[in-house]
Specification:
Layout (H helix, E strand, L loop, with lengths): L9 E7 L5 E8 L3 E9 L7 E3 L6 E2 L7 E6 L2 E6 L7 E5 L7 E4 L5 E2 L7 E9 L6 E9 L6 E4 L6 E10 L1 H7 L15 E7 L6 E6 L7 E4 L8 E2 L4 E4 L6 E8 L10 E7 L7 E5 L14 E2 L5 E5 L2 E5 L7 E7 L5 E4 L2 E5 L6 E5 L6 E4 L5
Parallel strand pairs: 10-13
Antiparallel strand pairs: 1-2, 2-3, 3-4, 3-5, 6-7, 7-8, 8-9, 11-12, 12-13, 14-15, 15-16, 16-17, 18-20, 19-20, 20-21, 21-22, 23-24, 24-25, 25-26, 27-28, 28-29, 29-30
Amino acid sequence: MPSAPDLPGFVSGIGFAADGSGFALLAECGTSRCRQRVAVLDRGADAWRLGRSPLPDVTGGLGITAGLVVLGSGRALITTGTWPPPESTWFTGDGGRSWRKGSSEPVGVTSVVPEGGALVEHCLRTDPEGNGCERSRLAAILPDTGEYRILSTQPRLKGQVGPAGEILGEHAARAAGEPAGKRADESAGSLLFASGRDPDSGRPALAVSEDRGRSWRLARLASAGKHVQYGRGTSVVAVPGTNTLYAAEPGRLPAEDDVKNGLLALHRSTDGGHTWERVWRHRKGVEPRSLLGVPLAAADGTVAIRGEAGTWHSTDGGRTFARAEGGRGPAGSVTVTPLGYLWGDSQGAGSYRISADGVHGTSFDLGGAS
C-alpha cells in the first residue's frame, strides 16, 4: 500500500475496494475555511493522485460532514449534509474524474444488495431530541449508480434497524460450516448482518442474510444487564480462516459519564451467527469500557479492543482482557474493508495499517502536507 504524506490536509474518510484501489477524503483547513479534496488510488497504481472534488469549501465553523462509501474499483459515493436525512450525494464511476449529484432519499425498491453495493440505514422517524433515529429500515446503495433503494424484504427487527457488518466470500463459507473453496461466487457466499431490537422482548438482536438480503433469520443476544441504554448498533466481525464471529454491543455505560463510546457486551458465535454466547459484559470501572470502531478479531485467536483509554487484548476468546503494551491513551479506530482490517492513529496524523488476518499488515501514511 503506497504512502502519500505530501497530500494536502488531514484524512476525514478512507475506503478500499477488493482489487486494492481506494479513495480518501481530505480537508485542508485554515483559520476560517476548509478546502475539501479527494485522493484516488487506482487499481495496480503505486501512488495516490488527487481527483476532482465535488465538495465545496467549508466556512463558518460548520465542520466536516462528508462521508465516503467505496462501491468497487473506481466507484465511490460521497454523502454530505446535516441531520436529519436526506443528504446530498455525489457518485463517481471513473475514479474521481467526474461526479454526479444525487440524494440519499431512496427511489424504488430492490430485492437484493448487489455485489459491490452497500447495506445502509434509512431513517423513518427521528428521536424526540432530533439527534438520532428512532425508527428505521434497510436500504441498499447500487454500485453502478450510487442510487438508494429500499430493500424489499426487511428483517424482523424493530426500532433503529441498521447494517451490522458483512462477512465476505471464504470467511462466510467457513462461518456457515461449508468446506473451504466450495463457493466460487464470493458475493453469493457473503453474510449480511443487521442490528435492531427483538420484536418480542425489545432487547438487542441481530438478523443475518445468506442471500444478499433476499431473506433474513433472527439471532437473539443475551441481555447486557438491567437499566442499560443501548447504543446505535451492534457490529459483527469474523476471525480470518475460521468459522468464529464476534459481535460488539455498544451503548451508554450505567453511572460512567466519562465514557463516550461505551462497550456493553461482546458476543461470540461458532455457527455462522445462528446462536451467540455472551463472553464479556461491562462491569463498572473495568476495562475495556469503550470501543472505537469494531473489534479486531485476528487469525491467531486474539481479540483486540481499541478504546478511549487504550488498547486491550484477549487470548481466551474475549472472556478476559489485559492492557496491550504501550496501549495507553486513545487507541485510534478500526474498520473493516474488503482488503481486511484498517486502523488509524488517534491523533489524526494520517498513519494507517491494513491487514488481511489482523496479525501481519502493511503501514502507510496519507496527508499532512500544508
